[in-house]
Write a structure and sequence with these properties.
This protein is mainly α. The chain folds into three domains: 2-89, no CATH class; 91-202; 205-333, no CATH class. The chain contains 14 helices and no strands. The protein has helices at 2-8, 11-24, 30-56, 61-110, 115-122, 129-142, 147-157, 161-176, 180-204, 206-240, 243-253, 256-263, 270-297, 305-330. The longest helix has 50 residues, at 61-110. The chain is elongated.
Length: 334
């Protein structure tokens, strides 16, 4: 069944899923993962379609099927992006530990320890995920694989441009006969220097991130809630006025445009405006989380958990602001 699903899907999607599983460090067949994501996505799509149908009170099988298909495709993308996120997170953890590990390997090589044994000795638990990769790298060389090829495969298993460049440098250095220990020390020094520059860049863009967070998570929910409260307040004012007498006075005094503003129909339903604002806030918060991720890491999905957090904060502040304003303003008409 898993093989059938793998053959039925487009090749680019199969290759992308296979690479994402490797980058995330998940030892699962590509077909099984695709079956898991497809079935769960369709199930979630059907559940959401039934919830929407119950909320709207109408909709046949075509509506349920179409809605389930749309949300199912969306959830397939979400599952794939979860893999990408964990692959990027794994790469960041490996990058953090890499300089110390390289210096330890270089020290072992200077002590006349063979490179495969130097790698295995450096695979310590304190290096976290990198320890597993060093263990695989050392065992590959021990079993007869060329050292340059082993380093190349190491770079292919980690979704990090930095690790890929380091693996390429090691591969080229080994083929040309360079001093491996000296090369590792120099790479470790360059990684730390790059990290310092990266921290300085993050400090410089901190003001942009703060502006985005303030605008989307605080200012927008408050402004939406004030607008809705104003419309709700206008409706309450209309209910307290004697519209008939006002219209008669306006006809006599010729003030019909002003009275029409107060006594006329607004054409805006408060509940509809609340749902529109909530949807707009959710969309804006998701886009803001992606922008923050791009500014801080250069990757769109590196801060994927921020999407849910941004949406929850914005929606919570929005509904709390509406409730508080209704309580405060409602006291004037009770």
């Amino acid at each position: 069944m898993a093989n059938l699903a793998e053959r039925a899907m487009p090749k680019f999607f199969v290759d992308a899923s296979r690479n994402a599983l490797v980058y995330a460090g998940i030892k699962m067949e590509t077909g099984r993962w695709m079956m898991f994501s497809l079935l769960n996505s369709l199930l979630m799509g059907v559940v959401i379609a039934l919830i929407i149908r119950t909320f709207l009170g109408e909709g046949g099988l075509i509506f349920i099927g179409g809605t389930a298909m749309v949300f199912g495709i969306a959830f397939v993308g979400i599952f794939h992006n979860v893999l990408i996120y964990y692959g990027g997170r794994r790469a960041r953890q490996i990058e953090v530990m890499l300089p110390d590990a390289l210096q330890l390997i270089a020290a072992n090589i200077r002590a006349d320890i063979p490179i495969h044994k130097a790698l295995l000795l450096a695979a310590r638990p304190e290096f976290g995920l990198l320890a597993g990769e060093l263990d695989v790298l050392g065992n590959s060389i021990l079993t007869g694989k060329p050292t340059s090829m082993a380093f190349k495969e190491f770079g292919e298993r980690v979704n990090s441009p930095l690790v890929t460049r380091i693996a390429t440098l090691m591969e080229e250095g080994l083929r040309s006969g360079h001093n491996v220990a000296g090369m590792m020390d120099q790479i470790a020094y360059d990684i730390r220097a790059f990290k310092i520059l990266d921290d300085e860049a993050n400090a410089n863009i901190g003001s942009y991130v703060l502006f985005i967070v303030m605008a989307v998570l605080i200012v927008a929910p408050v402004l939406y809630s004030i607008s809705i409260s104003f419309i709700d307040l206008t409706s309450q004012v209309k209910e307290t006025l004697d519209v008939g007498s006002l219209v008669q006075e306006a006809a006599i005094g010729g003030n019909s445009p002003l009275i029409g503003l107060v006594a006329g129909e607004s054409g805006i339903n408060v509940d509809t405006l609340i749902w529109f604002s909530a949807l707009n806030l959710a969309t804006s918060s998701g886009i803001a989380a992606i922008l923050v991720s791009v500014l801080q890491t250069g990757e769109t999905m590196q801060k994927m958990p921020y999407i849910l957090m941004f949406i929850l904060v914005a929606e919570t502040l929005f509904f709390v602001s509406i409730t508080v304003l209704r309580i405060v303003l409602g006291g004037f008409f009770t």
